[in-house]
């Protein structure tokens, strides 16, 4: 199947079945989304949603965050991953928003990336979700699922994945495609063992096709048989060597 066809099937399927996907992070304004996305690096959305209500109550706006420091922020985020670094980032981010951006979250990706704790992924999320910019953020789910489906080829870095997705996806789907891939990766195409048996994308998924052709199934079966034979052989050799050792002890006695 041609790559362009895969993209077409991917967009058609999700446009029809998941036309309005949204982030699972809870937020009420751009400032809160920015804070939540910074916190969500290497952490689950569920955990972030547990800490943000108290955090947003104590720091309801940019000004209150800018007036604080990492020590004050830390207790509110101690249960997320890397709380020390993230507390420093949030304090620095608040100050920079006040000092350079008049207390507003900037809309440009380059400007967002100047903020402490904001890398390209976070900047793309904010730009696309808040400002409708044609940008796709690549996290671990997007990276893995795009590669498995066959939307990307030989893309070794998040930036390479972003470039390929941006090249092939229709511009007006870039923002939603990010959520499609994340949600699919979180619930079906999971990292260790993708749930292909319940996945609706098998008929155009490259990974599925590579692992479920007649030859692939035969190879997997042959490997299983060989492993069973090897295990039996090892067990038999163990028994023989134990028996030989026993006999030599008996002889010495
Ligand atoms: S068929 Fe399997 S590998 Fe392909 S997208 Fe679905 S779950 Fe992932």
From TrEMBL:
Catalyses which reaction(s): 2'-deoxyribonucleotide-(2'-deoxyribose 5'-phosphate)-2'-deoxyribonucleotide-DNA = a 3'-end 2'-deoxyribonucleotide-(2,3-dehydro-2,3-deoxyribose 5'-phosphate)-DNA + a 5'-end 5'-phospho-2'-deoxyribonucleoside-DNA + H(+)
InterPro entries xrefs: DNA_glycosylase, Endonuclease-III-like_CS2, Endonuclease3_FeS-loop_motif, Endouclease-III_FeS-bd_BS, HhH-GPD_domain, HhH_base_excis_C, HhH_motif, Nth
Cofactor annotation: [4Fe-4S] cluster
PROSITE patterns assigned: ENDONUCLEASE_III_1, ENDONUCLEASE_III_2
BP terms from Gene Ontology: base-excision repair, AP site formation
Enzyme Commission designation: 4.2.99.18
Pfam families, alphabetized: EndIII_4Fe-2S, HHH, HhH-GPD
Transmembrane segments: none
Highest rank taxon of the organism: Bacteria
Stretches assigned to coiled coil: none
Keywords annotated in UniProt: 4Fe-4S, DNA damage, DNA repair, DNA-binding, Endonuclease, Glycosidase, Hydrolase, Iron, Iron-sulfur, Lyase, Metal-binding, Nuclease
Residue span, HhH-GPD domain: 39-187
Binding positions for [4Fe-4S] cluster per the UniProt entry: 189, 196, 199, 205
PANTHER family: A/G-SPECIFIC ADENINE GLYCOSYLASE/ENDONUCLEASE III (PTHR10359), ENDONUCLEASE III (PTHR10359:SF18)
Xref: HAMAP family: Nth
Family per similarity comment: Belongs to the Nth/MutY family.
Function: DNA repair enzyme that has both DNA N-glycosylase activity and AP-lyase activity. The DNA N-glycosylase activity releases various damaged pyrimidines from DNA by cleaving the N-glycosidic bond, leaving an AP (apurinic/apyrimidinic) site. The AP-lyase activity cleaves the phosphodiester bond 3' to the AP site by a beta-elimination, leaving a 3'-terminal unsaturated sugar and a product with a terminal 5'-phosphate.
Protein name: Endonuclease III
């Amino acid at each position: 199947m041609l790559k362009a066809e895969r993209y077409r099937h991917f967009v058609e399927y999700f446009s029809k079945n998941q036309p309005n996907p949204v982030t699972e992070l809870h937020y009420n304004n751009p400032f809160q989304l920015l804070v939540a996305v910074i916190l969500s690096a290497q952490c689950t959305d569920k955990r972030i949603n547990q800490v943000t209500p108290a955090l947003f109550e104590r720091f309801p706006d940019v000004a209150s965050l800018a007036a604080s420091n990492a020590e004050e922020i830390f207790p509110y985020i101690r249960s997320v991953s890397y709380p020390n670094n993230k507390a420093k980032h949030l304090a620095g981010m608040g100050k920079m928003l006040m000092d350079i951006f008049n207390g507003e979250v900037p809309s440009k990706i380059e400007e967002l990336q100047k903020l402490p704790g904001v890398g390209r992924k976070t900047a793309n999320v904010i730009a696309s979700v808040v400002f409708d910019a044609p940008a796709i953020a690549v996290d671990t789910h997007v990276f893995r699922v795009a590669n498995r489906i066959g939307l990307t080829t030989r893309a070794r870095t998040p930036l390479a994945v972003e470039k390929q997705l941006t090249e092939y996806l229709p511009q007006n789907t870039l923002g939603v495609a990010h959520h499609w891939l994340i949600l699919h990766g979180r619930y079906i195409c999971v990292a260790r063992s993708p749930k292909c048996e319940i996945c609706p994308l098998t008929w155009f998924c490259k990974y599925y096709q590579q692992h479920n052709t007649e030859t692939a199934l035969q190879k997997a079966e042959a490997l299983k048989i060989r492993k069973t034979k090897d295990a039996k052989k090892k067990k038999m050799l163990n028994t023989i060597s134990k028996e030989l050792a026993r006999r030599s002890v008996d002889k010495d006695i």
